[in-house]
Amino acid sequence: MIKDGGNSLLAVGEEAKKMLGRTPRGIFTVRPLKEGVIADFEVTAEMLRYFIKKVHNPNRFTRPSVVICVPSGVTEVEKRAVSEVAYKCGAGRGFLIDEPTAA
């Protein structure tokens, strides 16, 4: 993710990757997940909100269900954090699956 000093989201994913090394002062790269675990709760929430808005019409009354892959070694507390951030971002039901299952 690419953010400015005012915490505005400027780019996510491939778009952010293209901007690496080409950003002016005051704009920086943020990695909200480290090794599949939430490193920054608020930035992760912002990233998930971005993805949900991208694929789900915000004018609908339903919340989308999401499937999130988590590393097999994460703790129950870390899994709960992932579920909480998904719900906070507008997801309805959140299904967590282990990486080996997703592969």
UniProtKB/TrEMBL annotation:
Location(s) in or outside the cell: Cytoplasm
Pfam families noted in UniProt: MreB_Mbl
The UniProt record lists the keyword Transferase: no
Matching Gene3D superfamilies: 3.30.420.40
GO biological process: cell morphogenesis; regulation of cell shape
Keywords linked to the UniProt accession: ATP-binding, Cell shape, Cytoplasm, Nucleotide-binding
Signal peptide location: none
InterPro entries attached to this UniProt entry: ATPase_NBD (IPR043129), MreB (IPR004753), MreB_MamK-like (IPR056546)
GO cellular component entries: cytoplasm
GO molecular function: ATP binding
Family classification: Belongs to the FtsA/MreB family.
Protein name per its UniProtKB record: Rod shape-determining protein MreB
Species per Swiss-Prot/TrEMBL record: marine sediment metagenome
